[in-house]
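Quick one, tokens below:
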């Protein structure tokens, strides 16, 4: 406890306690996957898991008017640009 006293007490003293439990769980899963597979270093497996968890590319969606079925051909769907949430796998 002597080495980590300040960090441990900070968790209890702040209004919004923050832990690294998510990172530690990813590290554990990465170690398990590293044991199962071959050809990748632990750092690569860990980076892929950290940077691609819940990685999503949202496709453009059409905004549909409530009057769409009541009118004939007035207005076209408004396609939004694609949003990329996360790191692209090819960069790792």
């Amino acid at each position: 406890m002597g080495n980590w006293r300040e960090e441990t007490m900070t968790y209890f003293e702040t209004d919004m306690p923050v832990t690294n439990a998510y990172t530690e769980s990813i590290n554990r899963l990465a170690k398990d996957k590293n044991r199962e597979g071959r050809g990748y270093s632990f750092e690569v497996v860990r980076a892929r898991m950290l940077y691609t968890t819940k990685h999503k590319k949202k496709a453009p969606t059409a905004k549909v008017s409530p009057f769409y079925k009541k009118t004939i051909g007035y207005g076209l769907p408004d396609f939004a640009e694609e949003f990329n949430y996360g790191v692209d796998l090819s960069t790792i």
